[in-house]
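Hello forum,

I keep getting stuck at the same step: I have a sequence, I want structure tokens, and every attempt I make locally crashes halfway through. Rather than fight my setup again tonight, could one of you with a working pipeline run this one for me? It's a single chain of 721 residues.
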Amino acid sequence: MLTLAPYTRDLVLIGGGHAHALVLKAWGMDPLPGARLTVINPGPTAPYTGMLPGYVAGHYRRNELEIDLVRLCRHAGARLIFDKAVDIDQVRHEVTLETRGPVAYDLASIDVGITARLDLPGFSEYGIGAKPLNLYAKRWKNFLEQVLQGQAAADIAVIGGGVAGCELAMAMAFALQSAGVSPRVTVIESGPTISVVGDKAKRLILTAMSDLGVVVKTSAKTVKITSNQVLLDGQEPVAAVFCVGAAGGSAHKWISQTNLPQLNGFIKIGSDLGVLGDEALFAVGDCALMEVEPLPKAGVFAVRAAPILHHNIRMALSGGRRKTWRPQKDYLKLISLGGQSAVAEKFGFTLAGASMWHWKDWVDKAFMNRLSDLPKMEVLIETGKLATGVAEILATKPLCGGCGAKVGRGVLSAALKTIAQPSDDVVTGVGDDAAVLCQPNGDFQVISTDHLRGFIADPGLMTRIAAVHALGDVWAMGAQPQVGLASIILPQMSADLQRRTLLEITKVATEVLNAAGAQLVGGHTTMGAELTIGFTVTGTKNSMPLTIAGAKHGDALILTRPIGSGVILAADMLGQAEGHNVAATLAIMGQPQDREAVVLSTVAHAMTDVTGFGLAGHVHAMCQASGLDAHLFQDAIPTYPGARALSDAGVSSTLMPENYTDAPVNGLHDALLYDPQTAGGLLASVPKIQSAAVIEALGALGCSGHVIGRLSKGTGRVCLS
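Reply #2:
Ran it on my machine without issues. Output:
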């Protein structure tokens, strides 16, 4: 999302909890001009725990209970940083992250939830907390598979007899029984009875557990967890190959190590959701504690607090009166009973049965629909008298970022034909990945430049990808990176935000270049309409660098990276991509390819990196330069997760039609061959007899390589089968 207002204030949301997700939805509908929004979360999604028992029981698919933060952030015009907060400096107004540098804020809000990790001997080795969801879901899936394959006994213990523990125990028992297994499930409660519900609801839950064969042990103190047992104080051990911690909720350890006002690791807040004694911080959800009115750890309170948080954040950023949050005295409890049955309780009234489960199902899905029903991106169309051709361009989809915004190969080639032939000290110029220059000592230097129109709001990740993208030209020629010059356009913003942004950019650029054996030696920075990051890079080689013209008859074509990033990024821009697919794609795009280059350059006859002209365009260029034909194998070409489905649905980058025209492919049609790639893979022509050894060598380094085709004598044609 572009804004005409200059950025002047940094708002940082730490965590993707329910309240923050709703704030993102509201922010996208009515953003505050001048506020730059950042979200920090370890992954691209956040769990809606209300549907967890249904997922465990088999009533829902995993993606049905995942809040897609990538789509929400795109909707809100926010950058999303995939990382964990580990500290907050209230004086410097900085959030310390686990893997990258600090993130500055003018205003921040914390919504990181709680954990279910238990401080018991053996729990870290043999137990698993019910939260966070991703870890629990993975362990449960593996355990279920082992039981069904006869590799593990169906012995389960749940430590904690609250609502969460009872729900999970019944869900796991139901799932195993539905699969034809007779499990032994035990709920271990330290108190005299299961808790948090009234007497009638308690009786119904106990009956449901009994019907499922779930045993409840009360007044039971857990002392140790082993690989197959839970040891109790003064009672017989409980058989447990799978042990789940659900005894209330624990605060995140990192919060307890900060100077935030807290009690037992929970952040103390006032009635306006502000952190006590700090006008620049809010906290909400299970991680927060309102001393004057302590609340149960239930997601409903975070949901109800979200509108107040959204209002008060806007007031804190722009000036205005904050509102007071008054949580309800009681709340509706809808408790799953394993199968499609549930208990409902509120104000002392209790109902149970299938109708209650359908009610719960409706409530849960309605909440998730609120966060997935996002307005489509609007394109502002100029009105009035227009020059010929303007309406046609404006009617097309918005311009893509990254290499999807490049000028087409045909247009570019026509312009480059006007460039004069290189001088004697320039070995190769136009047409290759980089220019090759002769050095006085007989060595060679390569030089190339690239810049990318921003396709994500995170300057740090954009910098990483842009640097890897630019270095690809040096690696493709088998050269050693030497220096880099940065070319940066920042959106209009205040001096403070300029400083913060440039610090992020230069830090990441330095890290990437230094890791490649190069140095950042300067560059140029301006402000403009939108974020653009580029690099001019040089490299050295003591022998003639690889070009696209050296491929030979019989060579195998090896590709080191999937294709389809252009489709993923285009779909992300339109709000149509799944967040985990976007995150997976960005993660690969940000990985250097120096190791791949070392392996390939020792055997390759020709090499290039696949970027804006798509796989077809770069194969075409190699074939035409080498006087060969290429035969590509569709099933052997790797694609990014989700790219194939999006492509088949008609999603494409704005550059794709021109790529299709400029590099025709015979045989099968595959739109992904024309998809522009940003920070794409290395494409190498290697002797067929050595291709298997090359793939093995890449694998030994933790890199990927795929034989996607072969070369033969010809005239520059490409065929796909």
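The radius of gyration is 29 Å. If your local run keeps crashing, start a new thread with the error log.
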